[in-house]
Amino acid sequence: MGDWRFENQGEYTYEIVPYGKNMPVCVYVKTEREEILEHWHDEIEVVYTIAGRSIHYIDGQVYVAEKGSLLVTNSGSIHRIQTEPCIDGKYAIVLMIKYEFVERLVEQMNQKYFLTEVHSDADKIHEIMMGFLEFKEKHQEESYAELKATGLLYELLFYLCRDALVEKESVLPINSQKNLERLRGIMLYVRENYKEEMCQQKVAHKFYFSKEYFARFFKKNTGMTFIEYVTKYRVYEAAKEIKETDRSILDIALDCGFSDSRGLIRAFHCVYHTTPLQYRKESRVGKYTK
């Protein structure tokens, strides 16, 4: 299984998730502190917290996940994760479930919505998620192991559908759905134009907001200001170049929308708590390689 990546297709940019040949689910074990900016994907994402604490921004709401928490992010939902350091190493098991797989099992799935916080049989959920962990760490290369993982997925979906599946409009009214569409459009605009000068007032006008309402709208739905989002997005794009190339920090800074290298260095330190050059050095020895 390869790394996740973002790709343009049609109107939106979204996350592409790699799967095994016959697998309707990808299993990941999260072990490091990270912040993932707002994004969306077709897959249904399930996060089970093993240890530590993380904050999830999902469809404009904030959720705190602690040990034993099970959170679901629906297909197409805009979400962001902030994690805190975890001394135990592993802090969460993440499942990325093919939407088409669930759609074949659940009638009128396009009108349904999984509640984000799942309250079900805690012991059974723990058993299932530990089964996924064992599959990931010990058995995924064995013959027919994918059958075991698929069986666990069917069992998990039974509990999710029984205890957390509702009509979409009951928890996400049409107006809220339209607002999320607008937010996706704004984020796509940033991804396509982050190298250029980004004026908040012009972006607000482009998406038919007043400047004041745009600021409130963006902060409410993402937990950060528009400028903070743009800056972090530029830093993350710069980090890819820093890790994968030998280009100068100044050239990367200018190519990623910063006016000079000092602006990138300052913003980079706020996000990664290190300098770009130190990040490049440590990336070469594997510290930042996922």
UniProtKB/TrEMBL annotation:
<dbReference type="Pfam" id="PF02311">
    <property type="entry name" value="AraC_binding"/>
</dbReference>
<protein>
    <submittedName>
        <fullName>AraC family transcriptional regulator</fullName>
    </submittedName>
</protein>
<feature type="domain" description="HTH araC/xylS-type">
    <location>
        <begin position="184"/>
        <end position="282"/>
    </location>
</feature>
<keyword id="KW-0805">Transcription regulation</keyword>
<dbReference type="InterPro" id="IPR009057">
    <property type="entry name" value="Homeodomain-like_sf"/>
</dbReference>
<keyword id="KW-0238">DNA-binding</keyword>
<keyword id="KW-0804">Transcription</keyword>
<dbReference type="InterPro" id="IPR014710">
    <property type="entry name" value="RmlC-like_jellyroll"/>
</dbReference>
<dbReference type="InterPro" id="IPR037923">
    <property type="entry name" value="HTH-like"/>
</dbReference>
<dbReference type="InterPro" id="IPR018060">
    <property type="entry name" value="HTH_AraC"/>
</dbReference>
<dbReference type="InterPro" id="IPR003313">
    <property type="entry name" value="AraC-bd"/>
</dbReference>
<dbReference type="Pfam" id="PF12833">
    <property type="entry name" value="HTH_18"/>
</dbReference>
